[in-house]
Amino acid sequence: MMRFFRPRKTFAAVKFMAVFLANTVAMLASYLVLLCNNVVAGRQFGEDALAAITLVTPFISLIAFFTTLISTGTEIMVSRSVGQEDWEKANHFFSQGILLSFIFGAGLSGVLWLISLLPGAFMGGASPAVSAYAAEYYGYVCLLPLPQILNGTLFCMLLCQGGEKRSLAGSFVQIVSNIALAILLSRSMGIAGISLAAVISSLLQLGISLPWFFKKECRFRFRPYMNMKDLFSVLQYSFSIASSQLFLSVLGFVTNAFLLHRFGSSAVAIFALVLNLLDLFISAFDGLGDGLSILVNVYQAENDQHGLRNSIEAALRTGFFEALLLSAGFFAAAPLVPSLFAIDDRTILVPCIFAVRIFSLAALPIAIMMTYSFYCLCLNHFVLSVSINLLYLLIMPTCAGILSGTLSGMTGQWIGFTAGFWLSAVPVWFLARHSAKGLSFPLLLDKNALRSQFSYDIPASEDALKTLLPVMEAELASTPLSSGTRENMMLMTEETCALIVEKNTGRKTKHKTFIEVTCFTDLPNKLIIRDSGLLKNAADPSDAPVSLLSYTASLLVHGMAGADMSYIPASGYNRYIFRYPEEKKG
């Protein structure tokens, strides 16, 4: 297990970090919108308004559940189709995702509106002031599902098309407009203005994203499409990730009900801080899963066990250090958090600080569980992935929190709630152990495939290439490959890497290029070379060589029989595949 935390520079690690950083910024937008609503409500209207928003938050989580249910699976299936260069299939999944967004968005709005007709349906036990604020805030939440769900789908499609800047611009507009409108509208409309601001900012984000899909260079075009088999493919991948939002919603409902019954509305105000911290952790760690998605789905399709291992190790290392930073930061800044939400009641000020400090210690298990759950999903361990989410997001923290709160009061509530996230590692360990029959534990890799593969990571330099070649030749000599296949693999590695080195010579250090070479010595024999450098397809004869070396290499690589080379536009890196139909010797 210590391997996970040993610093390593690999192609997978470099690409993971690039995607992780971009997606983390975007995912934090949704958290900042909810945080803005809580802060403005607390500062403008006091603790009762903050408690009211906490009562409505489970419905926001429900909207997030349906957003993820559609967008995540659609993104995975579109990315796989684009990686296979099947744009017709990719457009089918895109169109189906847009259609599902409209259907689920309109349907959920109707359901939330019907719930609003039931007096006190979600405010039982709350004080009259909190109930009044909650009903007022809830009014415009009914309009949020359609633009929010559609935004989630379009965001994922932008990433599949290389529209990262447009997606980030949309997130930035949503954050800024929501903060400005929440402050402005709350002065004239009360707490209802805060929820209306969320709706308007979501529509503005939609206005930023939509024009991209009408550009000529966009290969997605909406055509009404719905197929039950494709729908099932989307939902089976989405449900594991979306289930986390559903479990969070149930967690909020159950804990709010217990706190109101056991301690009263003041405990709900404290729980608002804990929920906001939990939402922040999930938003911050969501980028870990997105970074994995870009790599693991391709590696899984290729049966590249070394690539899977490098990807999850990079994600776990990143999550470990990110969690430590967040835990240390919030533990130290805990006294400042209540004032951010305008909690000035001295009777709950100390419990608020205690709750924030205790719960900040849950960052590490949340990061590890989120990452491992998404990894299991990409490896098609659907039941295990959902079980992990159920255990660490609902069963363990709810049971431990209620039990400890009943026995030890409010202080015990927060200790037990936090301990539940750590204790979830015990049943997850046993479940993963059971699922690893015939596979390596805990990474669930194919042992036989792993033994028949060789993988090398080097920086794009001539010295590194010279070091790689003799090592690779020695390892290939011990395999049952024919001499012709071994020589072909060595030749293609040398010439292709030479092209990559020359293409990226002179790049700044911060853009240092890494090359990954993987040899598959079991049938079907193949060689895969990928790099994180400037985008280039060596099979494209229009890309003129700039030296005699690159000219010779281009002739060899482009003209070699049995060479199938392709560039993956969805992932933003170069991939060259060489397949060898020869039988093994002996």
Please tell me about this protein's structure:
With 586 residues, the protein is mainly α. Helices cover 72% and strands 6% of the residues. The protein is built from 19 helices and five strands. Strand 2 (514-520) and strand 3 form a beta hairpin.
User: Approximately what portion of the residues adopt beta-strand conformation?
Assistant: 5-15%
What kind of sheet is the major sheet?
Answer: 5 strands, antiparallel
Count of beta strands: 5
Gross geometry: globular
Q: Mean pLDDT, nearest integer?
A: 82
Low-confidence stretches: 1-7
Radius of gyration: 26 Å
Put the structure in a nutshell.
By secondary structure, the protein is mainly alpha-helical.
Question: Main traits of this protein?
Answer:
586 residues; 5-stranded antiparallel beta sheet; 19 helices
Question: What's the layout of helices and strands?
Answer:
Layout: H1 11-45, H2 47-83, H3 87-116, H4 128-141, H5 145-160, H6 164-189, H7 192-209, H8 228-262, H9 265-302, H10 305-333, H11 337-340, H12 346-360, H13 363-378, H14 382-423, H15 425-435, H16 447-451, E1 453-459, H17 462-477, H18 483-504, E2 514-520, E3 525-531, H19 548-559, E4 563-568, E5 573-580
Antiparallel strand pairs: 1-2, 2-3, 3-5, 4-5
Helix pairs in contact: 1-2, 1-6, 1-9, 1-10, 2-3, 2-4, 2-5, 2-8, 2-9, 3-4, 3-5, 4-7, 5-7, 6-7, 8-9, 8-14, 9-10, 9-12, 9-13, 10-12, 10-13, 12-14, 13-14, 14-15, 17-18, 18-19
